[in-house]
Amino acid sequence: MTATPLYPRFAEARLAEALADTPVVLIHGPRQCGKTTLALHLGEQRNYAYFSFDDDVLSAAVRADPAGFVGDLPERTILDEIQRVPELFTAIKTSVDRRRTPGRFILTGSANVLLLPRLGDSLAGRMAIVRLHPLAQCELAARPSRFLDRLFDASFKTGSSERLGPELAERIAAGGYPAALARATPRRRSAWYRDYIETLVQRDVRDLARISALDALPRLLTLAAGQTARLLNVSDLAGPFQVSRPTIRDYITLLERVFLLEPLPPWHSNRLSRLIKTPKLHIGDTGVACALLGLDAQALWRDRPTLGQLLETFVLQELRRQAGWHEAAIGFHHFRDKDGAEVDIVLERGAHEVAGVEVKAAATVTAADFRGLRKLREAAGKRFTSGVVLYDGESCASFGDGFYAVPLRRLWETS
Question: Is the pLDDT confidence value at 294 over 70?
Answer without folding.
Answer: yes
